[in-house]
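Researcher: I'm comparing several assemblies side by side, and this is the next one on my list. It has 539 residues spread over two chains. Same procedure as the others: predict the full complex and return the structure.
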Amino acid sequence: MGTAGPLPELQGFAKDFYAWCKRGELRFQRCSDCGAWRHVPREMCAECGSWRWEWSRSSGRGSLFTWTVVVRAMHPAFEAKVPFAPAVIEMEEGVRLVSQVVDCPPEELEIGMPVEVVFDDVTAEIALPKFRVARSRARRSTEEGGG
Amino acid sequence: MKGEQGVRDRACIVGIGETAYVRRPGSGMSALGLQLQAAVRAIEDAGLDRARIDGLMPFPNLGSAEAFAANLGCENLRFAATIHMGGAAPVASLQAAATAVIAGIASYVLIPAGWNGYSGARARQTVAADAASMPGGEIARDYYLPYGLTAPPQWYALMARRHMHEYGTRPEQLGAIAVAMRKHAQRNPRAVMHGRPLSLEDYLASPMLADPYRLFDCCLETDGAAAALVTTAERARDLDKKPVTIMATACGQPYPADEITNRKDIFRTGLSIAAPEAFARAGIGAADVDFAEIYDCFTFEVLQQIEEAGFCKRGEGGAFVEGGRIELGGELPVNTHGGLLSEAHVLGMNHIVEAVRQLRGDAGERQVEKAEIGVVTGWGDFGDGSIAVLRR
């Protein structure tokens, strides 16, 4: 387990979102009427007005939308971790979330890079969804590197 | 837009006030005390008695209207409100204050803002320390902070990188903004960075904080306060100072405003909506503006607001800010006082004060020649926007 920095408060929708993560499943709210995916969780569907929704499982695949490299921490919990790269991942379902790419040094990140979800058990109760470079791509780049 | 003229020319800014802007060793006053000092100066600037103030619009979380009224002796407070738009609040408050005086709900509305942003809790710590401090704070706590995305330069760096990717915006162009603000500060003895010029080379050599943001892409953290006083155009004629007329105002929010990543168009922020409305209400175009005081929490936000306000097309902001165009003497002088980057971080209230000073013709060696129309913008939280078009 990693060192726990600031953690989500496990109440309301966040409690359910992270409970699914703890079980190894990335799920987002999806409207039961119009099918629209949404993140962060909301009470109702802003697209069609429906109150009916379910936690729907994501493919776990997405791509890197943007990122920053934190070189100087602005929160004490992250001082020992710099440099690291908070990133925005765009999922295949269309929703985006803040996360990190765990197996790629910041200087090798590229917008559009395919990634897939992994789970980081930061406490006994909380797993954070993070991402690694998608395997198909990793294999390809290994082959290229070895060629 | 016909029939939607908003506050058009019916309210004025009649008083401005400021404290000293300082870092080490700090103001030595409470945040409320600082703001009261600026408030008293704004009221005196207008030549009013303090008791005449019957409207107060404090900045979010920086003091209650009740506390201001009790200190200032405002025995007949009739209008008190706070706009929760972070750094967009002071300009948004100009709009609400103008509306209140035009409607006759209040006669003289005071807008103070200020803090001990250096010697007290630093700006960078606000949300991480208190999720209730801004709309979207709980979303940040539950979905951003665990990943080390804890402070404003990091949030906005995400947008800056995306802009670089889509439009080829370069670090040297962000640097041109930092350099321009610093040049202006050399003509402003009140600026914290007065006497400390900055070259593009200095900028590029400054340490990276949140890539692509370097140290000199980031606003200062300072102690200080400023205030402005609003009344009707009619009352303004009877006061001491030549009034500055509020031609038009507008506010806007990105969608969704409380979450920064899930926007269909991530460059569509509050100002994208507000600026066209404000120009239409004022009956002018962006080309008619003589100078702009643009909320400069970070360099890229200046570039982005220049684009979204329509001073150039989206994607052309990088080229626009180069070649001295935004410097004094250029086509559109921006942040003639030095801005949050080089004067002080007074939550954007110092931008309003500077615009009034320019339109009064009181800006000394940094006076924009023949300044008739000036624009002030505010940017807050995750991209809320506000704009005021002012004229002499």
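Model: For your comparison table: Chain B has one domain: 11-391.
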